[in-house]
Structures are given as structure tokens and as C-alpha cells.
Specification:
Proline_oxidase; TIM Barrel; PRODH_bac_arc; 8 strands; single chain; 2 domains; alpha/beta
Length: 300
């Protein structure tokens, strides 16, 4: 089963609606840390006890109803308060389309300002997840507008985009998470070959680090991780300027190994009922993930 097949399924609204009724079946419980705030708090508390930091993603995207977007904004505020109340070490990741970007930019900005105000009061950081290319430039515009007032917000940059390296220029000094990219994009705007994506990933990481920006290296690829370790060591880049990140449920031994070696490590922890699209993209990324999911189903 091809990557394109699972990416196609990830956008199927009927299947997404049905998945909310299934609960975390089909192996999703292996990579999604529950459906409630209490469940995700427990999961992150365990990660913190093992020396790992976290960032929480309340799953959901491409919202088209105003009430749903407003509820999503309120949920983020609840998550921030739960982080403070439970004294856990976690940032919060958000998607602008879940906060109403496809309904109106004004609604999305209202939600973001409310979230950032509470996060700033609580001493927390908000990372804007990058979505598909249709929302790419507007996401960057919103980030730069928000940065005029808030210093506790950053975003994600995708190395499969051909313009990714150049697009770092106006983002100097802004904390960024560098990823390969998980959406299906046209060859006109995105590299299609793994070698090109990987090479651009390293170029983007090195450029942002050289510019002094805090950089999250979000990959499960041990070859890239080793290359970053060598680069930072040879260029005397302090470990405080970067961190490694991986997804919840993946390569757990390597996550602990990096933390044990003294690197800051942050696990990306998704939760919530709207898990279907996220799960399909994880299956699309690597054939090994399909086997991983099947094992999850069998173990139930």
C-alpha cells in the first residue's frame, strides 16, 4: 500500500467521522496518548519522570464551523491550565486550521492571541504546526504578525519544500522545528526524492543554527541525528540552542538514549478524538509504520 493511498485516506471526512466513534483502535493507541486531557497529562508525567520534555498536540485540523474553532481555542486554554496545575514540562502545538483559519483569519488570530496571552502568563511556549502548502504562506505571515507582540511562539518548517531554505531568512531568531514534511505536495513546490529532502533538512538545520536561532531537530532518522551531532560539536554550538524531537510511540529507545547523552529531548504527544488524519499520515510516512499498526491491532 502506497504513501499516496494513506494520504488520500487521511483527507476522507466520512472515515474521519467514523473513526471518532471507534476510539483508539486500529493500532492508534500506540501513537496517540489518549483522548482526554487527564490521559495525556498522565502520559506526559511519565515522560517527564524519564527525563523527556513534551509538546502537546490536541488533534484536529481543517475546521469549517465557527463553534468548533472556538471550542478548539478553549481546549488549548484548558490544556495550558492543566500543564500548570500538574506541573509538567510541556509546550503546546497548535494548527491554525483547527483554530478557524479556513473560516476567517480574524477568528484564528483571536484564538491565537488568547492562547498566547495565557501561555505567556504561565511561562509556556506555543508552536504553530505547519500544515499543507495551501496554508504555508499565510501561516508564516501570521507567525510574523504575532511575533511583533509575542516572543513565546514559533513554527515548523518543512524540508521537502523547495523554498524552505530561503524561507528561513525572515525567521532569524525565531524558534523553529525542522521536519521533513508529511503532506502530499506537487513536485513544482516540493522535493519528491528522499535524498533531496534529507539534504535540504540538514542545510536548513545548519543555517538556522548558524543564525543563532533555537532549533528543534524533529526526525527519527539516526543518520541525520548523527550528522547534526557532528555539526554542532565541530561548530561549538551549545546544547541549549537545539533539541531533538520525535513522535510519541516511535523509537523510544533512541529517545531515551539522546536524553541520557545530555541532549534536550522533546516528545511530540498527540491526543484527542480527532486522531484519524494524524494516524493515516504516520502510516504514509514509512512502510514500517504499517507493521507497527498491525501489531497494535493484534495486541488488543
Amino acid at each position: 500500500m502506497s504513501r499516496h493511498f494513506f494520504l488520500f485516506l487521511s483527507k476522507n471526512k466520512a472515515l474521519n467521522k467514523s473513526a471518532k466513534k471507534w476510539g483508539l483502535r486500529l493500532g492508534a493507541a500506540k501513537v496517540v496518548a489518549g483522548v482526554t486531557i487527564d490521559e495525556v497529562m498522565q502520559s506526559i508525567q511519565q515522560l517527564n519522570e524519564q527525563g523527556l520534555k513534551a509538546t502537546i498536540d490536541h488533534l484536529g485540523e481543517f475546521v469549517t464551523e465557527r463553534e468548533e474553532a472556538e471550542n478548539a481555542g478553549s481546549a488549548c486554554l484548558d490544556i495550558l491550565e492543566a500543564i500548570k496545575r500538574n506541573n509538567i514540562d510541556s509546550h503546546v502545538s497548535v494548527k491554525l486550521t483547527k483554530l478557524g483559519l479556513d473560516i476567517s483569519r480574524e477568528l484564528c488570530m483571536e484564538n491565537m492571541r488568547s492562547i498566547l496571552d495565557v501561555a505567556k502568563t504561565n511561562g509556556n511556549f506555543i508552536n504553530i504546526d505547519m500544515e499543507d502548502y495551501a496554508h504555508y504562506h499565510e501561516t508564516l505571515d501570521i507567525l510574523l504578525e504575532l511575533r511583533q507582540k509575542y516572543d513565546n511562539v514559533g513554527t515548523v518548517m518543512q524540508s521537502y519544500l523547495r523554498s524552505g531554505l530561503d524561507d528561513l531568512d525572515p525567521l532569524q531568531g525565531i524558534p523553529l522545528r525542522i521536519v521533513k514534511g508529511a503532506y502530499q505536495e506537487d513536485a513544482a513546490v516540493a522535493y519528491q526524492d528522499k535524498e533531496d529532502i534529507d539534504a535540504n533538512f540538514l542545510c536548513m538545520v545548519e543555517k538556522h543554527l548558524r543564525n543563532g536561532g533555537h532549533t528543534a531537530i524533529a526526525t527519527h532518522d539516526h543518520t541525520i541525528i548523527e550528522a547534526v551531532q557532528t555539526f554542532t560539536r565541530e561548530n561549538n554550538i551549545p546544547t541549549e540552542q537545539f533539541e531533538f524531537q520525535m513522535l510519541y510511540g516511535f523509537r523510544q529507545e533512541l529517545q531515551h538514549q539522546l536524553a541520557d547523552e545530555g541532549y534536550t529531548f522533546r516528545t511530540y504527544v498527540p491526543f484527542g478524538q480527532d486522531w484519524y488524519g494524524y494516524f493515516m499520515r504516520r502510516l504514509a510516512e514509512r512502510p514500517q509504520n504499517i507493521v507497527f499498526a498491525v501489531r497494535g491491532m493484534i495486541s488488543k
